[in-house]
């Protein structure tokens, strides 16, 4: 009948191979489920974050996203950059805290860009945060890090391009468009953009400041007419 020992070893090997395959299938399925759950979790966090942002809950938003600061998701990271910056803009934030938050925001935006170079939002907030950091590093760094705009027409082109890509993406962009047209003595278009800035839904402290400045500028040149 042959070698009984060899036959038993063959059966044992076959059994172990089968068990190994079954284990592999279980592990593979578990990995797929885990990956799907992770994606769902990120989407859930982003949904919560967007709700808090739209509700103007700046501090709650920052607390939520800070829990995931080690994330590698670009969508989460640029939102965290924005939230850090918004906390820095709050009137109750000390100058020391503001500086730390500004640099923190830049780091998150940079990481978001590294994770997804095609993300317009990551590029947008990286540029904004770089400009903020320039305020602490002097004029040379500010010029080196930011878009160099020499003439009002160049500025106008930049602001319009940003607006075309993502309309009303940033309240300050609307304000800058209005101020640029004021300097160009085009009061009709200045009024158009300043009104949009004044009426922009205020989600952050900066949005409120933009509303106030836009309203003052509108009142100022209306009184001169």
Automatic annotation (TrEMBL):
Organism: Camelus bactrianus (Bactrian camel)
Highest taxon of source: Eukaryota
Family membership noted in the UniProt record: Belongs to the RMDN family.
Quaternary structure annotation from Swiss-Prot or TrEMBL: Interacts with microtubules.
The organism's taxonomic lineage, starting at the top: Eukaryota, Metazoa, Chordata, Craniata, Vertebrata
Recorded GO CC terms: mitochondrion; mitotic spindle pole; spindle microtubule
UniProt protein name: Regulator of microtubule dynamics protein 1
Compartment list: Cytoplasm, Cytoskeleton, Spindle pole
Keyword Nucleotide-binding recorded: no
Keyword line: Cytoplasm, Cytoskeleton, Microtubule, Repeat, TPR repeat
GO molecular function: microtubule binding
